[in-house]
Structures are given as structure tokens and as C-alpha cells.
Amino acid sequence: MNIVFIPNIDLGNNRSTPYHYSIKSWKQWAKQHDDIEIIEWTEPIMDPKEFKITLQRYWVHDILKHNNIEYDQVLIVDADTIIHPNCPNFFNETKDKFGVVINNGCYEWVTRSIGQWGNALFPNEPKVKTWEYFNGGFQITSKKHIPFYNYVKEYYITNINQINQLGEQIKAGTDQTIINYLTQQNNIDTIYLPECYNLQDLFKKSLLHIPGYSGFPDQLRFLEAGYVYHFNAIPQNDRHVSYWMERTYKELYL
Questions:
Q1: Which of 45, 70, 222, 223 is deepest in the core (most CB within 10 A)?
Q2: Is residue 103 part of a domain?
Q3: What CA–CA distance (Å, rounded) separates 233 from 239?
């Protein structure tokens, strides 16, 4: 059995309001596969004010073990995603490696994040290459990677105060750049899956029509550009995350 693990923690800021569309889309997609189960994780294991949810998700193997859930591979995926019903079974493409997708998004943000987090936490480690930098919102892991995830957890616990302070200063991610450095540092055998499995930063790809801003038709062109749509990095406007997740879900599943 393979698991799709979706953190969906209500932090009281209404951010998670549209995420039920994500859960429903993944469950609809999984019905086509006998060996895939969707798990929505709703209860944090530590105080999110001190330990952000993006850090806590690396306890995924412990959470599954605690709940007596058997699995082969597990995808940790962000809850601001919608999956296309025709998406192939990406678990068949990992070759038992750590599966990720390149972060093909805002390269100002990426290069700044790599540089500043690297200088602060990994001064003796070569800078992560921008073209090898992966998005933390789509990670496929297995029991083979438990020792690595244990290392990651210990790193976070040991350095949490500094990580929190730096996060406020750098304002370019929390775990994402750190996990890129730790993966490189530990020589984890990684496979880069096609971008279609985590099509992100749709606004900067000119795939979201914003009235009064976009000079192209109001169509869901991104449905032709990938299988998993990640509604991140959208500037504040009337068509924010909630709008796009609801519209996309209804277009695909209703």
C-alpha cells in the first residue's frame, strides 16, 4: 500500500478553508488505484507556534507507525494542491529513491533562500544548485529513508530556535531550503520526477487569469500543463487560493 499524506492543520487563520477541495480531489483520484490510500493529517504533534507544520511533517514515518498503518511508499504533499483525475501513478516512477520535483518558480526567491539559509546554517556546504533545488510540497519517501528522516528531525530539534529566528529574518521558506541542503549533505539517492507532478507558481507562469491584469483569456490552461496543480505564491487579489482551488476542483470533478 502506498500513502498520500496531506497535512491539513487548522491554525485558526482561515488559510486551510479551501483545502477540503484538495483532500476530495486526492481521494477521488485514489479510487482508481487499489494500492493507494489518502491520509489527511489534522492534529499537530507539537505546538505549531514553536514548531511549524512544515517541519512537523518529517515525523510522517512515526505518525504512520503510531497508527499501525502499513505502507510501501508515502507521498507528503501540500494541501494547496489539486490533482487531475488522469494523473498517472507516480509511485511507479520512483525506482525506490527519494522522489522530488524541481522548484520551477520564482528564481529570485530561490536564489536568495539558497544563499541566506546556506550562509547561516551550512557555511561549509557547497551551495545547492538552483536547477537542482526541489519543492518541499511533494516528497516521496519510504522506510528506506527513515534513518535520513530521523537525522532531519534531530537537526530541527537541535536548531529550532535558530531556524525560527532566521525564518523571520530571511522570509524565504522554512524547511524547504534546509531539506535541500540536508539531502545534498547526506548524499541521498534522489530522483527528480517530471514537473507535471507538482506544477507550481502558476501565476508567474501566466497560467492564472487575473481580471484587469492578465492579457490572455480566462481559461484553465494549466490543466493542459500538468497533473498536480500547486496553488502557491499567488499575490493577494480577489482570485486567491480559495478561488482557484474551488474552480479547479469543480472543473475536474463535478
A1: 222
A2: yes
A3: 13
